[in-house]
Amino acid sequence: MIYSEKVMDHFSNPRNVGAIADADGVGEVGNAKCGDIMKIYLKIENDIITDVKFKTFGCGAAVATSSMATELIKGKPVSEALKLTNKAVVDALDGLPAVKIHCSVLAEEAIKAAIADYLVKQGKNPADYGIKEACNSCCSSCGSSCNEK
Description:
Elements: H1 5-12, E1 25-31, E2 36-45, E3 48-57, H2 60-73, H3 78-81, H4 86-92, H5 101-121
Antiparallel strand pairs: 1-2, 2-3
Helix pairs in contact: 1-2, 2-5, 4-5
């Protein structure tokens, strides 16, 4: 399997690793059967994501997509972060092998889950912001099989 230089860089030197103790929103997606679990922590002030951290258990592509996704939303308004797609994450990494695309889907879903958590804590309904329930069944939303690793 061939990975781009950006994937290798974000795997070898991941950005924004860790947790935020007093996070305004936390989202976790994935499944131990699949092997990829992502947890995203958000700090939000005046509707701007001022800090974002992640913890990922999974393959190199899962770590790289988590790292890149956090970079893409840091400093952005919540409304803009909600528009982040797995395709944008893949494009920012200069591509991923087809069997690893599900990692970018999990990164997108983890961010949406963290934003949903934030919205609920603010007394808002995530569905009003277009957030569906996060994928917790690993790979089902993209049609990949967890056995494709």
